[in-house]
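Table S2 (text version). Query chain:
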Amino acid sequence: MTAINDQNSESGLSSLYPPRPVAEIYALKEALSTLGTVRSFQPNDEIHAVSQHEKSLYLFTEGHFTVVRANDGLVLSSMRGEMVYGIAECLRPRGGWFLKVEEPCTARVIPAEQAFELFTRMQLWETVSGLLAWFLQMYSLRDEHLVGVTAYVMIRNKLLELELLPADVRRDINAADFIQGRTQLARSTVMAILGELRRGDYIEIKRGKLVAIRHLPKEY
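Corresponding structure-token output:
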């Protein structure tokens, strides 16, 4: 590794992404909790909000999911816990992404038209807009982390994102796979940069799993 800028400007890893809109999710969960039907899902199931001319919202009270870009399999983000999925897709169908289930869970599946009528009747569209604004912020920040930056900066940002996960979750995740799935960088590039970071004692990786980040330079 050459010409390292030794400044590290993180004010806290939680600042990587905006805080989860807990109040908005709770309000929508309460409103939707008696609608639709409950379905079970298993790991690797793919959930499409719009399929065969049907539009559905999915209300999850728990679970682990990844959002995947449909045309190339790029992982856009990972999510855990309560979630309302499908609002944007049902409002403006495009089919650009889908939700992949990572662990067994259940969801309340609600016809979009029925949900949207309820949002109007209960004056919840402002709450909905708050949730959609959060998703917009998330993906805007993701682009800042990945678009127009070097391969090292991409890897650095994904390492910081990986470190945010609980230790018991992180120990089951291969760091190189996590980075490659979210950047589509060449495997050789990812492994080369991780190797240099390990040799420089910037990070600790054991059996492919990220154990600790000691210090990540801003630039390579």
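Notes on Table S2: Residues 125-146 form the longest helix (22 residues). Helices lie at 22-32, 87-91, 112-121, 125-146, 151-163, 167-170, 175-183, 187-199.
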